[in-house]
Amino acid sequence: MISKTAIVGASSGLHARPAARFSQAVADSGIDVDITFQGTGVDASSVLEVMTLGVGSGDEVTLSTANDADASTLDELVALLASDLDAE
Amino acid sequence: MSIVGTAIGVDSSEAPSHDPEGDSATVQLAMQRVAEQLRARAERSSGNAKDVLSATAQLASDRGLLKTVTGHLRNGEGITSAVHNAVGEYAEKLQRLGGYMAERVADLHDVRDRVICELRGEDAPGVPELSEPSILVAKDLAPAETATLDPAIVLGIITEEGGPTSHTAILAAQLGIPAAVKVSGIVQAAHTSDELALDGGAGMVLVDPSATEITELGERSARRTVLLSGSHGQGLTKDGRHIALLANIGSAADATKAAALDLEGSGLFRTEFMFLDRQDAPSVEEQTDTYTRVIESFGNRRVVVRTLDAGADKPLAFTQMPEEENPALGIRGLRLGMRKQELLDTQLEALSRAYRATHGDLWVMAPMVADVDEAHYFAQKVRALGLPKVGVMIEVPAAALRASRVLREVDFASIGTNDLAQYTMAADRLNGELAGLLSPWQPAVLEMISFACKGGATTHSHIGVCGEAGGDPLLALVLVGLGVTSLSMAPKKVAAVRASLAMHDCSRCQEMAQAALDSSTAAQARDAVISMADPAVRDLL
């Protein structure tokens, strides 16, 4: 089990489009990832779960996955969250 | 014709789930099929429609949704109930988040209905794929569905529900698709008939039209084409009074399109779109850029900008205003601006920067002004920034009745007929069943407009109309007769209104206005005006 924190860079937070891009990336990675915000952890590959967390721009979230070997994948997802997902 | 399926419910008599894991697998398969269909449609679409369809496809294959459905199945719910209730949970959460998130609820409900249909082995709801140009018949159409319609293949839209000012009707008008709404019994009639004819202008539907009727419609359409092709330049009555004909727009892209047309500017730039789709208010720089582009699109033509019209009915993610029992009567329009002053101040600052950059013909007005204090508040803010023209919307009866006092504070007013009708008749705009009460032909609504115009006359103020009423070639004559000096409408309607004005003297318009005011009902008012108008106007309706 490994966890990493990320600061959300999308200028409007994880609303529809940024949430969709992020959860698609999680699904494409093929590993199970949880995203935790303010004590609530959800399946990061679900756009509905991610959207309904209500994460705003600059908020800190935690990503975690069961297998330590997936650390580099988690790093990529952290970097994606930190980028401006709103930008085209 | 093509008939769109009606609302999907749950199977009320279905058995509780005895095999939750098996049922979950069935739901998963249905969700996958729905997602595939949507992705296939997205592949063949472009632009806005492609984005909407791809996003909906992603919702349809959502793992969280499947997990929640499975939870409901384990609680012993029937299979369609489980889908229905799981979606309901997410919809409620999204609704609570408000703003743009709340707008996703319609997409989620669309997914729910598609999955339930798939489970039942029925055709997908929503607009079917059209193989040939067709008239679309539906109980009602979601705005998202309407927005993705292709005017090249959808010849017309007929719905049983929805009012003339519902978003679907407005979107159809913007796409230039003829539409008739509130046509009771049309879905039934469409099922039992071979052919339908629609005259969108007149809101007339012919079921199994005869050869003669089809010929007549065709001839009418040809006459209309001739009238419209002869309509150019400024809006002028037959005796030469200038009535500015303007476009209603909602974005910089709309401005570019409208500015390419033969019209005199924009009489209503709705600025909400910049605010609704996001978690933070747009910065002064971003707004300045948008306003500058809109003003530049129109060159030296008029641009009337309405400051943010949001509130509990169109919630913003970043204002954190409480929910209200009666949003239409609550904190919206300028009322919101007075409570969230930084929002209004930022917007006005951006407008003044755009004005200094362009020196265009910029007019700035506030929505939902009710009294003199509010008009004064807004006017002093706008003038302090050196903006050249300040005005108010007249959509609250109080402001119409007291227009002479309100107009002492500002330079102009614009009548929002949709909201003015809603508030005069105490009838919710969004309730299709009340469409009759909301007709702008209601003599009480016309009387209210007359009050506003008379008030404006005492201060020699410019009074415009920027509701749907302004785009009706017949009603436009009445409005001019009542004293309105500009009309703003969906851009595609300008040519018909211009042609209608050119056929009538001012004095004739005044007589028609008086006849409408003297009528007892909306239908009588319209009949009276039709009988007095040049017969050729009928071809424009």
From TrEMBL, chain A:
<dbReference type="InterPro" id="IPR001020">
    <property type="entry name" value="PTS_HPr_His_P_site"/>
</dbReference>
<dbReference type="GO" id="GO:0005737">
    <property type="term" value="C:cytoplasm"/>
</dbReference>
<protein>
    <recommendedName>
        <fullName>Phosphocarrier protein HPr</fullName>
    </recommendedName>
</protein>
<feature type="domain" description="HPr">
    <location>
        <begin position="1"/>
        <end position="88"/>
    </location>
</feature>
<keyword id="KW-0598">Phosphotransferase system</keyword>
<dbReference type="Pfam" id="PF00381">
    <property type="entry name" value="PTS-HPr"/>
</dbReference>
<dbReference type="InterPro" id="IPR050399">
    <property type="entry name" value="HPr"/>
</dbReference>
<dbReference type="InterPro" id="IPR035895">
    <property type="entry name" value="HPr-like_sf"/>
</dbReference>
<dbReference type="InterPro" id="IPR000032">
    <property type="entry name" value="HPr-like"/>
</dbReference>
<dbReference type="GO" id="GO:0009401">
    <property type="term" value="P:phosphoenolpyruvate-dependent sugar phosphotransferase system"/>
</dbReference>
<keyword id="KW-0963">Cytoplasm</keyword>
<comment type="function">
    <text>General (non sugar-specific) component of the phosphoenolpyruvate-dependent sugar phosphotransferase system (sugar PTS). This major carbohydrate active-transport system catalyzes the phosphorylation of incoming sugar substrates concomitantly with their translocation across the cell membrane. The phosphoryl group from phosphoenolpyruvate (PEP) is transferred to the phosphoryl carrier protein HPr by enzyme I. Phospho-HPr then transfers it to the PTS EIIA domain.</text>
</comment>
